[in-house]
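Structure, all two chains, one model.
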Amino acid sequence: NAGVTQTPKFQVLKTGQSMTLQCAQDMNHNSMYWYRQDPGMGLRLIYYSASEGTTDKGEVPNGYNVSRLNKREFSLRLESAAPSQTSVYFCASSVSENTEAFFGQGTRLTVV
Amino acid sequence: AQSVTQLGSHVSVSEGALVLLRCNYSSSVPPYLFWYVQYPNQGLQLLLKYTSAATLVKGINGFEAEFKKSETSFHLTKPSAHMSDAAEYFCAVSGRYGGSQGNLIFGKGTKLSVKP
């Protein structure tokens, strides 16, 4: 079982460049999430999608956009990368809101 | 709004000793609570969850946690630590129980070291 798949696993960007992080789940989950993880900060929610066709801002949405392409896929876009966006990004999915989330392996992003 | 506090960013135990990782939550309604483990360079894996069925919850790898409403706590324990338990552990609470929107709110994590 693949579960939650994120691509790429590693990425280096220059300040001002754009990129899209891809996420797909094969568990038929309704809800999907993007978190960022920084040392000593735990996981902070960037955006989430409670169900196909809906997206909502989380705790730290500035500088990001998302697209829930279909039930399986939820992408995160950085339009103009900044060094403050250097982080590890995790995509997760759950059957529904407030149930346990299943995580991808993460994308380690460095912005120079 | 719900929140989670994990006491101690680093905990070190000897192999074979008791593991106790502390988590306190704040919630105005009965929450769902979770413990996750993260091994180096990996994603988060669910250890166990509390969803009001039983106050003592058993999880994978010999871990368990007890929900104590009077103390608003959900501490994680394991009777005997193994070297393989060295990882970072996160406590999480459901964002808005029963509401129209929700997600998991995570604590800042506790890094567990196990000494031989």
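The first strand of chain A starts at residue 4 and ends at 7.
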